[in-house]
Amino acid sequence: MHILSKTNKIILSEMVRTDFKLRYQNSVLGYLWSLLRPLMLSFILYIVFAKFLGVKGDIRHYVSYLLLGIMTWTFFIEVTTGAVSAVVAKGDLIRKISIPRYLTVLSSSASAIINFGLNMIVLAGIMLITGVEIKLEYILLAPILLIQLYTLALGVAFFLAASYVKYRDISFIWEVFTQMLFYLTPIIYPMSLVLSKYPAGKYLLLSPVAQIIQDLRYILVTPQTQTAWQLLGPLALVPVFSTVLILAMSVRYFKKESKTFAENV
Amino acid sequence: MARTDTNDKNIAVSIKNVSKYFSPTKGQGSIKQLFTSGLKKREIKNKGYWALKDVEFDVEEGDFFGIVGRNGSGKSTLLKMIAGIYSPTGGKIKVNGKLVPFIELGVGFNPELSGRDNVFLNGALLGFSRKEMIAMYDEIVSFAELEDHMEVKLRNYSSGMQVRLAFSIAIRTKSDILLIDEVLAVGDAVFQQKCFEYFKKIKAQKKTVIFVSHDMNAVQQYCTRAAYVKDSHLIKVGTPKQIARLYEEEMYETLELQYRHESSNVSHDNDASRTLKNEPIIGIKCNNSRPIKYGEDLIITIDWPKNLNNVRNVGAAIFSSKDEFIHGNNSIINKKNYKNKNTAKITYNLMINEGEYYVTVGLFGEKDTDVIFYKPRAVTFGVKRESVADSWQGLTNLKSKWE
Lengths: 265, 403
Description:
The complex is a heterodimer of chains A (265) and B (403).
Chain A lengths: L5 H18 L8 H22 L8 H23 L1 H4 L1 H6 L5 H28 L6 H4 L2 H25 L3 H14 L7 H7 L10 H13 L7 H5 L4 H22 L2 H4 L1
Helix pairs in contact in A: 1-6, 2-3, 2-6, 3-6, 3-8, 3-9, 3-11, 6-8, 8-11, 8-13
Chain B lengths: L10 E12 L8 H6 L4 H5 L3 E12 L3 E5 L6 H9 L6 E6 L19 H11 L4 H15 L14 H12 L6 E5 L7 H16 L3 E6 L2 H7 L2 E6 L2 E6 L1 H30 L13 E4 L5 E2 L3 E7 L9 E8 L4 E6 L12 E7 L5 E10 L6 E14 L19
Parallel strand pairs in B: 3-6, 3-7, 5-6, 10-16
Antiparallel strand pairs in B: 1-2, 1-4, 7-8, 9-11, 11-14, 12-13, 12-15, 15-16
Helix pairs in contact in B: 4-5, 4-6, 5-6, 8-9
């Protein structure tokens, strides 16, 4: 099976293009919004968390630390939430043409990838301005973590997209679940804050999202970050393996279900 | 129907023992249903239905293959399975060669995008890269005759314009096997002419075409072979002539049943009253209880109550089942005034082709604008010809002289 054969690439790029055109139609600033959004978001977060609440613990470069966490989380949410209706929204296509069904999920993730890229550019600027020390040997590890992040997001995305065709409850369940997961992930609070009260809090890093966020922070922002490896030892392999397992299982489920998408969607 | 597989290389699409089951439990549901249906799963499953059962035939390379059947017979399901949109519940479909992946024109057309953007989007879905599309863009646009409209959003196009655009893109496809589902049902006469020309062209190129249609004339004109599908079963594969005959016979059987039903209604209600409560009771009757033979007379009688003493003019119009206006006339034109009358009898000599027709009836006063009663599709009738094949085609027979 050619996952990205020439024809599939053509279809995918045209689907992404269409989504983009539709999204920014009738908006004065158009594509610029993709860049303005993270800038404005960063500014708000900085004011709220660093200035008003002061939840920074003992972390240096807290702004970059916080932003990296938020942006990584946002990417995960955009890919997965966007994928919930990816198949159903393209129902018109699915009923009338035999294109590989997984293209709908891939194309729905494209805007999240673009947003994430732009977010990273903004973050890099902020890191430079605030004087975060960047270690080159660490940066080289970032792509591996980003691949893990996309693998995880896609894994969840395929499951959500396929099950939403049958069960429309999925969108609500996923919404509530991500709210819960947000607070169970050390995004706005530093790990040290949890550990000082509940030592068992280290098991929060068994969640792949938490593991990825902490690892990214460790290599990009500050070695003060407590990673899964530090806190859990060899158990830190659990989130890595579960990422692969999630993708494998959900691709299998998606493949099986995709045979009946056309009649159920 | 039994075909040998000795010349396997010439078979474009082989359909082996194919069935398709639609299960309602697999439809949209909720988590609640998932839990509650656990116990009575079998019971619910029985509510599904077989859209197709054990269908088996081959389409040879270069065939122009017609699939014929009434609505809901399963022919579109079959086409969707060949296209790969549905997967069969049982059996196997083997396709040799590049198959066009769509069964409908203008797949993916988005009303919010301009005509231009839609050309590229639709082209991509047919497998054309942007570069290829740029190269043939001008030709597509000029073929669709839409040069001045390409920057306009598709939602501002008329349906005819959309179809023209979609068709111009679709005919670019380089597939070996084409699937066509009722294209001819849309578009105006000029567009249909273009379709026919395209059909002739692909037929000359010896491409394989699978064509689903209700139009027996088109089937007989283009197809080299045809299949008849009825109630989820394949009834027969044969020559277009045989299949068209079979289909038409079946259609008239159904029509006859309908007539019997209607005429029994007439006797019960004592008037063929298709009227609303506050409408005057007008009886409209037709002399036939079964299809009328071509060339015989259709007699329509219209009775209205004496108190409708302002009726002067009676009009009637005949439409085909495709809503084509066949004939319209009224009594004033025919120098007949219905003052002080309460019944009108119209006799038509039916020189029209086989098919199903409707008669719209109206009662008028002195002026055309005084509408006393108007009933669209008041009467239905069918026409049957002794021999369709080897004879004239079209809506009506014209007196013609050949020198």
